[in-house]
Amino acid sequence: MKKLLIATFCITFFIFNTSRAQSDEAVIKSLYNNSLTQGKSYDWLNYLSNQIGGRLSGSLNAERAVKWTKEELDKLGLDKVWLQPVMVPKWVRGGKEYAYIESASGKSTTVNICALGSSLATPSFGVKAPVVEVKTFEDLAKMGSDSIRGKIVFFNRPMRPDFILTSNAYSDANDQRTKGAMEASKYGAVGVIVRSLNLRLDDFPHTGNMSYGDLPNSQKIPAAAISTNDAELLSTMLSLDEDLKFYFKQNCKQLDDVLSYNVIGQITGSEYPDEYIVVGGHLDSWDLADGSHDDGAGCMQSMDVLRLLKITGIKPKRSIRVVLYMNEENGMRGASKYADLAKQNNENHIFALESDSGGFTPRGFSFDCSEAQFNKISGWKTLFKPYLIHYFEQGGSGADVGKLKNGTTVLAGLRPDSQRYFDYHHAENDTFDAINKRELELGAATMASMIYLIDKYGTN
Fold first, then answer.
1. Are residues 231 and 327 in the same domain?
2. What is the pLDDT of residues 28-82, one digit of tens each?
3. Within a domain: residue 224?
């Protein structure tokens, strides 16, 4: 009898888990089918990119994007949609930048540059000075003030091509953009030119934010990015003529902070309404293009997650929010505001997923969580296998959701194929024509599937 009871229990347990798995497989299949046959992320992104355009924090287009995304979320019949006020910096680029290389003989060659975000302008007549090429801050220290004072520092450290994850190559090279002007100024430099953070050779300069740290205004120097083709040209010309000069002019300006908003929509949970699951991206972008990959794609995918859950007939047990953060690119004010208010209101966020790596083919997720939480989530990996989603790794999430880090909330990032992302990142070719509809919709379905599983089974 005892053996019979044990056998019966095992069979029941097997049937229960098999049916549960089949049920999850069926739901996830429906989410993918709905995204690929009646998805909205691509059409939404078309409007955001081509009818609104680049959305730098504090700009009119950022304001238009806030208004439009709230209207679209209102149409979805969510339980709640609202705007969360946040003060953001307002930096304006001004007229198009201009630069040239001048040889000792007086011959000039124009090159492609763009001001780095938060940089100050050059004097009205521009800056022209001799150039010193370096790759690291250690190079600056070795050269010292005597070799740098009165010159333009040219940071020319390429992103490393041997990193398979291109985000690692970006992180490895990023300090020259973010801190280059601050470090060069300490040695008396009059300006900084930084090689664009891009793995391929092209003519597009890539912007991005930079910081002066605690430098007094009198020591701040203008900073610009130069295209990779022109960085190669400048380096070659310097090797042949150490006496050449570089000229650049930019007209950017930092204005007073202005009021903007995070855009938030919510489906309230039926069983655990005080447990929150967040999916989102950042609504702002740089101003050189329409920001389709960075991060219009992530925002539209996140909006579609809630729509896909609704049309698939999923009634969440926990409250699910889409959060479109403002000011990720040059301040992180939106993410900080959301996290601060969540803490003040004692909101229990159990999971937060961000899409901010472009609209390319999804490969999986990275998770910032405990070992036990990661082991539980990894158990769902087989459910994603039919969609070629194999990348489940511990470590890393996203810049915006990272503000919710508290030791218990699971933070995650969608990980698309990364090989082409930095061809477009922060450059004027980050436009809607670089988006593949099917890849974008696969990403939305992948995110919706993870949100469905987290809602059903929790994180602990």
1. no
2. 999 999 999 999 999 999 999 999 999 999 999 999 999 999 999 999 999 999 9
3. yes
**Alpha-carbon distance 209 to 122, whole Å?**
17
Q: What is the pTM of this model?
A: 0.94
Give the model confidence (pLDDT) of 108-133 as tens digits. Answer: 999 999 999 999 999 999 999 999 99
Q: Alpha carbon 241 to chain centroid distance?
A: 39
DSSP character at residue 434 = G
The residue whose two tokens read 């690291």 is: 136
Beta carbons within 10 angstroms of residue 407's beta carbon: 6
Phi-psi label, residue 108: left if phi above 0, alpha if psi -120 to 50, beta otherwise: beta
Work out the widest C-alpha separation in the chain, in whole angstroms: 101
- β-pairing verdict for 272-282 and 391-394: unpaired
Domain boundary among 206, 229, 253: 253
**446 and 362 in a common domain:** yes
pLDDT digits (tens, 9 = 90+) for 178-206: 999 999 999 999 999 999 999 999 999 99
Q: 190 and 296 in one domain?
A: no
383 shares a domain with 441: yes
Report the residue count for the chain: 460
CA distances from 337 to 82, 114, 130, 285, 381 (A): 14, 30, 44, 18, 33
CA distance 116 to 224: 5
Q: Which one from 72, 97, 183, 328 is the annotated catalytic residue?
A: 328
Q: Are residues 190 and 230 in the same domain?
A: yes
φ, ψ (nearest 5 deg) of residue 281: -155, -175
CA separation, residue 14 to residues 2, 376, 432 (Å): 18, 19, 48
User: How far, in Å, CA of 430 to CA of 210, rounded?
Assistant: 20
Q: Give φ, ψ of 68 to 5 degrees.
A: -70, -45
CA atoms within 13 A on the CB side of 196: 30
Could you tell me the CATH number of the domain that includes residue 370? Answer: 3.40.630.10
Q: Which value, in Å, is the radius of gyration of the alpha carbons in the chain? A: 25
3-class state of residue 165 by DSSP: coil
**Domain span at 313:** 28-90+256-457
Same domain, 142 and 280: no
Residue type, 39: G
**Amino acid of residue 390:** H
Give catalytic status of residue 271 as yes or no.
Answer: no
Q: Provide the pLDDT confidence category of residue 16 given band limits of 50, 70 and 90.
A: very low
